Amino acid sequence: MTFPSRLEQTAKRNKSNIILALDFPFEKVEQRQKLLFTAQKVLDAAHPFLCAVKINHHLTLPLGLFDGVQGLVQKAHDLGLLAVMDCKVNDIGATNQVIAEYYYSAGFDALIANPFIGWEEGLKPIFDVADKTQRGVILLVYMSHKGALDGYGQTVVDAETGEKTSQYIIFAKKALQYKADGAIVGATYPEKIREIRQILEEKVPIISPGIGAQGGEVEAAVKAGAKYLIVGRAVAQATNPATAAKEFRDRADQAL
Amino acid sequence: MTFPSRLEQTAKRNKSNIILALDFPFEKVEQRQKLLFTAQKVLDAAHPFLCAVKINHHLTLPLGLFDGVQGLVQKAHDLGLLAVMDCKVNDIGATNQVIAEYYYSAGFDALIANPFIGWEEGLKPIFDVADKTQRGVILLVYMSHKGALDGYGQTVVDAETGEKTSQYIIFAKKALQYKADGAIVGATYPEKIREIRQILEEKVPIISPGIGAQGGEVEAAVKAGAKYLIVGRAVAQATNPATAAKEFRDRADQAL
User: What is the ipTM of this complex?
Assistant: First the structure.
């Protein structure tokens, strides 16, 4: 079964389209056991209101992929959730292949990659490893931060048509062409979600980060066409992660 | 002292402008102790012919940043080399800040970032952490693989002048504007090195990966304006890493 099918099935079963980003502030390495406990505690509390967790270098760097993080991925699976590695891969092919093999072998169901690296000796080796191991590749199409305008928002001369086009439109078309398993579009830019959704239709699900701390709104993102919503600090660093996750889940549920 | 000054001083003292990329193939996690030994052995053998080592996820993922890799960084320092983390950071600001703090706290003298993320809530937090900790930020300007053409080589409408410009020219100008501590330009594209060098002059040193396995030539890269050369597999995976490193060092020495 493909990653999008598995994610959809999990979302239906768990009655949630919320992906929790387990993002925590920098901690001294001496504190990493505490950090791991915190991550486990948040996951335990919030899991009934999630379909997946997303892990970033906030955890892989202090804990180690095969030391702390692999256990968290296993825990997510045990709790009936999928696990996405937000590594935003953007290296040369030989390195991307090794990166994909490590993350998938640690159990991740999908990883996030940056289409800016191009196809040949860039994205292709990632998709090859994903095909071989039956995992997913999610492509960045428009990120959630202010500076996204400089890159994702820039105007580009389309290499095929010669026409001026927005970078994110080109990325959206590539997501379709490469049969990506998801497209990241910041919830902070609902108008971009709408435009990208017109290209992707039902073929590539839009996954929107930036809900909560970054100012993205569940309702606006969903209305514009986002299928899954990524919430990070607003749940992971909440006083009561379960309550916070439930609230986002309910709002998404109502909006979808 | 700034990173470029320290790198220049180290290169003079060690009589080498070669940076060794400690890149190894994917290994099962059970083999990671062997992988660490191999990395240590290669570093021990090749260090007299180097000014720095570059570490990528080939090692951080299996070994862990604070388990195996921090020790390798320490070893590089003990051997009189600098250590660069090739993480190609390209996330949102809050995450980039955490990533930079972890890598610098593990001892890295500089890290590599992707200017595609833009400045605000993108590169700025990385430069802020680098300033605070007196470390370096090296920006990608043109990568060494084939697919680099799709992104780094695309034609962009310059947001300031409205003119059609190559993406890498915009990145080179940003490297200058942001006072980057180095610019990555693939040795596989000497004509790009030449063009970028005209923009950067002596202000931002060009560091060229892709020498050896990827087909880049020391002489062509140096003649075009590269100051430092990154060699990976051709040394790290050579039967005799010392001989291989010495050969690249001698060729660079002659060309510089």
Answer: 0.97
Q: Which amino acid is at B14?
A: N
Mean pLDDT (chain B, rounded): 97
Walk me through the domains of chain A, giving residue ranges and CATH numbers.
3-255 (3.20.20.70)
C-beta atoms of A148 and B118 within 8 A: yes
Report CA B192 to chain centroid distance, whole Å: 17
The phi, psi pair for B168, rounded to 5°, reads -70, -25
CB neighbours (10 Å) of residue A30? 8
Which pLDDT tens digit goes with each residue over A67-117?
999 999 999 999 999 999 999 999 999 999 999 999 999 999 999 999 999
Burial class (CB in 10 A: 0-12, 13-18, 19+), A182: buried
Contact between residue A86 and residue A21 where contact means Cβ atoms under 8 Å apart: yes
Tell which of A145, A146, A184, A211 to mutate to test the B interface (max B CBs under 10 Å): A145
Dist CA A85 CA A133 (whole Å):
15
Question: Do A129 and A77 contact (CB within 8 A), yes or no?
Answer: no
Whether B157 and A149 lie within 8 Å, measured CB to CB: no
Of A124, A143, A157, the CB nearest to B92: A143
pTM of the model: 0.98
Instruction: Answer whether B133's CB lies under 8 Å from A158's CB.
Output: no
Query: What digits encode the pLDDT tens for the residues B111-162?
Result: 999 999 999 999 999 999 999 999 999 999 999 999 999 999 999 999 889 9
* Number of CB atoms found within 10 A of residue B191's CB: 9
Q: What is the pLDDT of residues B220-242, one digit of tens each?
A: 999 999 999 999 999 999 999 99
